[in-house]
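Side project, low priority. Logging it here so it doesn't get lost.
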Amino acid sequence: MNTTYPNQRPGLFTAIAAMTLASGVINLFWGFVASASALGTIVGIVCLPITILPTILGVFEIIYAAKLLSTQPGPVNPAQSLAVFQISTFLLGNVFSMVVGILSLIFYNDVAVKEYFAQINGTARTAPAPVEQPEVLPVPEEPVTPEPVEEPARPKRVRKIAGK
């Protein structure tokens, strides 16, 4: 049941935006700290491209959250790929971003959130019209007449051999 007014945001939509913003800020700091600590060793300099990835993800998360939190959001689609990248930050030790990614994927599948995304994108989600099934009339059955039973054929005579 949709309890939201036509132009009101669903609560889960706002939750997605707020969690994505928080995750973006945490990923920015996470990436800066990882990059700064990686610069301390020679092996860390080689691994620097890996430590920059949370920073890049954080920038994309903040941009996406800003689009969602604007007073009149423009056309924007659910960022399921962003949620998958948030989940993959578990490999770098960021559990908070992983939880945000999982919750985002769950919230994207909510009916009210799907309808709101369709509304801000200008694509109306309408329920398909029910298809009328043609009325099936019963087929009249003909009375079953028993088939005539044939009498079995007479057995052939067996010849008797003389002398025995």
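Brief comment: The CA atoms of residues 61 and 131 lie 43 Å apart.
Revisit when time allows.
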